[in-house]
């Protein structure tokens, strides 16, 4: 499994590279945002560790561009900023998870394992097209259509929709969604759930009202 590390600080990139390779990952490193998109055109990694503060193209803009063209690639966003605004914006642009600097290297490796496992674990795949109302979900091709129009979803959004569509009328608490989608071994805040739900709802076009917020409980997908 190959991970692309994008960080302009060579010592930090080297530290991440060393520990990932110790855990059996293959790695590549980019120190400048301008290098990333040409690199992806030649060889797609299984995941990207993306620092926000980059020369060339900033991390936020790069995250958006990557997710527009390669929505299936999970991105772990790394930020030295302490404000919640940057984290929320990164998640809204498509980042699958985030970690703050200075980070614990073991936690970073665990998060990389979690975001990449979502794309490679065959036990999480559902065979056959799922149709609910005006929504069609093809898990094998990782495609979603609403009223015949294909919509682009990140991996997290896709997994959320897959879970909701397979369990219409079932209320899921934020804690339950965290366990089912992100995994129990990764620390993610409730705010991350809310941001991803909002982003998914906005993409569902005429079907967005079916993704309901249940005050004090969590979220539910209304049956068609």
Automatic annotation (TrEMBL):
<feature type="domain" description="Response regulatory">
    <location>
        <begin position="2"/>
        <end position="116"/>
    </location>
</feature>
<keyword id="KW-0597">Phosphoprotein</keyword>
<dbReference type="InterPro" id="IPR001867">
    <property type="entry name" value="OmpR/PhoB-type_DNA-bd"/>
</dbReference>
<feature type="domain" description="OmpR/PhoB-type">
    <location>
        <begin position="127"/>
        <end position="223"/>
    </location>
</feature>
<dbReference type="InterPro" id="IPR011006">
    <property type="entry name" value="CheY-like_superfamily"/>
</dbReference>
<dbReference type="GO" id="GO:0000156">
    <property type="term" value="F:phosphorelay response regulator activity"/>
</dbReference>
<comment type="function">
    <text>This protein is a positive regulator for the phosphate regulon. Transcription of this operon is positively regulated by PhoB and PhoR when phosphate is limited.</text>
</comment>
<dbReference type="GO" id="GO:0005829">
    <property type="term" value="C:cytosol"/>
</dbReference>
<dbReference type="InterPro" id="IPR039420">
    <property type="entry name" value="WalR-like"/>
</dbReference>
<dbReference type="InterPro" id="IPR036388">
    <property type="entry name" value="WH-like_DNA-bd_sf"/>
</dbReference>
<dbReference type="Pfam" id="PF00072">
    <property type="entry name" value="Response_reg"/>
</dbReference>
<keyword id="KW-0238">DNA-binding</keyword>
<dbReference type="GO" id="GO:0032993">
    <property type="term" value="C:protein-DNA complex"/>
</dbReference>
<feature type="DNA-binding region" description="OmpR/PhoB-type">
    <location>
        <begin position="127"/>
        <end position="223"/>
    </location>
</feature>
<protein>
    <recommendedName>
        <fullName>Phosphate regulon transcriptional regulatory protein PhoB</fullName>
    </recommendedName>
</protein>
<dbReference type="GO" id="GO:0006355">
    <property type="term" value="P:regulation of DNA-templated transcription"/>
</dbReference>
<keyword id="KW-0805">Transcription regulation</keyword>
<dbReference type="GO" id="GO:0000976">
    <property type="term" value="F:transcription cis-regulatory region binding"/>
</dbReference>
<keyword id="KW-0902">Two-component regulatory system</keyword>
<feature type="modified residue" description="4-aspartylphosphate">
    <location>
        <position position="51"/>
    </location>
</feature>
<dbReference type="Pfam" id="PF00486">
    <property type="entry name" value="Trans_reg_C"/>
</dbReference>
<dbReference type="InterPro" id="IPR001789">
    <property type="entry name" value="Sig_transdc_resp-reg_receiver"/>
</dbReference>
<keyword id="KW-0804">Transcription</keyword>
<dbReference type="InterPro" id="IPR016032">
    <property type="entry name" value="Sig_transdc_resp-reg_C-effctor"/>
</dbReference>
């Amino acid at each position: 499994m190959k991970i692309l590390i994008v960080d302009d600080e060579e010592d930090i990139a080297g530290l991440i590279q060393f520990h990932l390779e110790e855990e059996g990952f293959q790695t590549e490193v980019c120190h400048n945002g301008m290098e990333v998109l040409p690199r992806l055109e030649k060889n797609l990694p299984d995941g990207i560790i993306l620092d926000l503060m980059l020369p060339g193209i900033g991390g936020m803009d790069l995250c958006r561009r990557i997710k527009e063209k390669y929505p299936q690639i999970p991105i772990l966003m790394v930020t030295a900023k302490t404000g919640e605004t940057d984290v929320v914006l990164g998640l809204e642009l498509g980042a699958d998870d985030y970690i703050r600097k200075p980070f614990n290297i073991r936690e970073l490796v665990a998060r990389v394992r979690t975001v990449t496992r979502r794309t490679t674990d065959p036990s999480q795949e559902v065979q056959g097209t799922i149709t609910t109302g005006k929504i069609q979900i093809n898990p094998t091709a990782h495609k979603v259509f609403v009223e015949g129009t294909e919509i682009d979803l990140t991996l997290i959004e896709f997994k959320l929709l897959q879970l909701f569509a397979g369990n219409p009328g079932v209320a899921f608490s934020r804690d339950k969604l965290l366990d089912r989608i992100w995994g129990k071994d990764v620390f993610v805040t409730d705010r991350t759930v809310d941001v991803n739900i909002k982003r998914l709802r906005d993409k569902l076009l005429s079907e967005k009202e079916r993704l309901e917020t249940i005050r004090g409980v969590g979220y539910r997908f209304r049956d068609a």
